[in-house]
Amino acid sequence: MNTQKRLPWPWQVLTGRPRGLGLQRSTQWPWHALTGLILVTLAASLWYSTSLISYEWRWNRVPQYFVYQAEEAQRAVDYGRVEAISEQGEGSRVTLLSAAGAQQVVEVAKGSLQVAQGDEVAEGDVIGVTRHWAAGPLLWGLWATLWISVASGVIGLLIGLFMGLCRLSRNPTLRDLSTVYVELVRGTPLLVQIFIFYFFIGTVLNLSREFAGVAALALFTGAYVAEIVRAGVQSIAKGQGEAARSLGLTAPQSMRHVILPQAFKRVLPPLAGQFISLVKDTSLVSVIAITELTKSGREAITTSFSTFEIWFCVAALYLLINLPLSQIANRLERRLAQSD
Known about the structure:
This protein has helices at 9-15, 29-52, 137-167, 172-186, 190-205, 209-234, 238-246, 251-281, 293-304, 307-338; strands at 67-75, 80-88, 91-98, 103-109, 120-121, 126-135. Helix content is 60%, strand content 13%. Helix 3 packs across helix 6 (209-234), helix 3 packs antiparallel against helix 9 (293-304) and helix 9 (293-304) packs antiparallel against helix 10. The chain is elongated. This is Putative glutamine transport system permease protein GlnP.
């Protein structure tokens, strides 16, 4: 006999828990509609707030900070004159004849021509420009954020795995040193660590700002990964290790082949959260003049005066990195759960 008490119907609706055989999918649309209404209300509130401060949106200024047409001046290499000019599709082909009789052929973009046929030119005179698409500061900042995140994440994972195992070691020295490292790093702000690493250690060892930034982020991430690894290993029943040892595996082999694979399944969510936080923490390396995404956004604001637009784009780029990372972690977690 089923003695489980059913929740009252209003509470079932509010909590989304089933009544009887469960809520049908068709009865869930009001909740999705409510979600959409809340999001629309928040967007309208944001628009209304900006209208109160008489802010003028200038989204047309934003695309140039992603990609733009760069111009490169084409110059005469010697004294001479313009012998011929011919049209070549979207450009112009200029033939220069130097005083020594040598020819120089210059191709420039149409509409940028600065000389006419028969003109005298001197060395260094601008004939015209060529145009090509180039990445803007926000894309370069996104690239810097990506490689800094990947480099510091990989190094931090290795440091964290080693230090986490040291925290579980029977060797008092390894255990004490790893504990000091974890508590020291977790007990001080990341910004202070970046300053110390760059201005003190970096100056003594003559390190570049990129190396100092990656090292500081890696050491910071490694401390948290170490605690995640330690907790994951300790969550595995001791009988697993004992069973592995009884089969003839050594302690390192049992840790590698039995304990760590099981622990990895349990620590995957906190590890994913830590690496997502790492991507956002890369914004702090801008204090040592590394032009990552946040610093690129600040520089774009000083020239465009489009404060809200640029910051919204910067936030969207961080989401562009973190949302796929979160989805990959969730899918990997479900796949590992099915393999149990």
